[in-house]
Amino acid sequence: MSQPAWTHGVRIAGTGSCLPSRTLTNADFEKLVDTTDEWIFQRTGIRQRQVCNPETEGCFTLSRDALSRALEMAGMKGSDLDLVIVATVSGEMPCPSTACRVAAAIGATPAPAFDLQAACSGFVYAVNVAEALIRSGRFRSVGVVGCDIMSSIVDYTDRTVSILFGDAAGSVVLVRDDNPARGCLYQAMGADGSGWNALYLPKRMQEVPPDDVNNPIRLGYLRMNGKEVFRFAVTKFREVIEDALRNTGLTPETVSQVVCHQSNIRIIDAAREKIGIPAEKVYVNIDRCGNSSSGSVGLCFDELNRAGKIKSGDAVVLVAFGGGLTWASSVWRI
């Protein structure tokens, strides 16, 4: 939706991210399934991905550490936060929420905390919700995390899905700012539930559609119709970016960075080339981190920020799509 007139703005006070300790390379996959490094790289752009040690790492620990690093950059404590949101589909427990555990760990209690589920779109969804809550005047500071532990929900006996994903968390701390021109210039979110079975995680046979009953991927693990997701992603990615530019008056020349969900290098390149955005304005880390679902946009944003590539006054577009099917954009004046 377009932004009405506001009396104050929203500032990104700090960013943070966290990658797990283990590296899973394409060569490692050659020992698990019938594939090769070159086959994976040509189709996805991925060389390696980071995955958790399940004994010591998970959605809670990565989310906690990413938000702690964002708070450190912002010069804030957990007790300064009015709200904590964690976007994830892979928390250790449905109850309590990952956000509640993170808020307690960083000292944000009694701030409200909740998880948000929008698959790979989750971080951008959560940023948009947090920004709107600050703009409304209800909150002054919100900690947002996008984190997914995809290694816990992919079947490593299947090469069609498992090769794509890694684990990561990305975070931002949003605060109210006196300058009403600073913050989100435009945001859009959408969903089409009719395409749910293109990317889904069934736990019982009752949840499996008739045309997928012979899928070799075990129950409790992510299933994907690769051709359908690719078709949806290539089209929607371009549409969402074009919509964001059109509604803000920005152009490929005036945008500083387009921070995309790291789905597949072919999807990213197809959208970028169609719109005419220079390669240096579209950050890519899928080669070393894989697709980390809701962790990917926040991770990319933090890496860009810490590299000094995002500066005050820059126009930055966040964009993602994922299971649901869902999609989202968020255009910011930093």
Written account of the structure:
The protein is α/β, with parallel strands linked by helices and 334 residues long. The protein has one domain: Peroxisomal Thiolase, Chain A, domain 1 (3-Layer(aba) Sandwich), CATH 3.40.47. The chain is built from 10 helices and 13 strands. It has helices at residues 26-30, 37-44, 59-74, 98-106, 122-135, 159-162, 226-248, 265-275, 286-289, 296-306, and strands at 9-18, 22-25, 48-51, 83-87, 113-116, 141-149, 167-177, 183-191, 199-200, 223-224, 257-260, 315-322, 326-333. A 5-stranded mixed β-sheet has the order 1-7-6-4-5, sandwiched between helices. A 4-stranded mixed β-sheet has the order 8-13-12-11, sandwiched between helices. A two-stranded antiparallel sheet has the order 2-3. Strand 12 and strand 13 form a beta hairpin. Helix 3 crosses helix 4 and helix 7 (226-248) runs parallel beside helix 8. The longest helix has 23 residues, at 226-248.
Number of separate domains: 1
* Assembly annotation: single chain
**Strand order across the largest sheet:** 1-7-6-4-5
Beta percentage is 15-25%
What can be said about this structure in brief?
The protein is of the alpha/beta class.
Features:
single chain, alpha/beta, Peroxisomal Thiolase, Chain A, domain 1, 4-stranded mixed β-sheet, 10 helices, 24% strand
Set down the secondary structure blueprint:
Blueprint: E1 9-18, E2 22-25, H1 26-30, H2 37-44, E3 48-51, H3 59-74, E4 83-87, H4 98-106, E5 113-116, H5 122-135, E6 141-149, H6 159-162, E7 167-177, E8 183-191, E9 199-200, E10 223-224, H7 226-248, E11 257-260, H8 265-275, H9 286-289, H10 296-306, E12 315-322, E13 326-333
Parallel strand pairs: 4-5, 4-6, 11-12
Antiparallel strand pairs: 1-7, 2-3, 6-7, 8-13, 9-10, 12-13
Helix pairs in contact: 3-4, 7-8
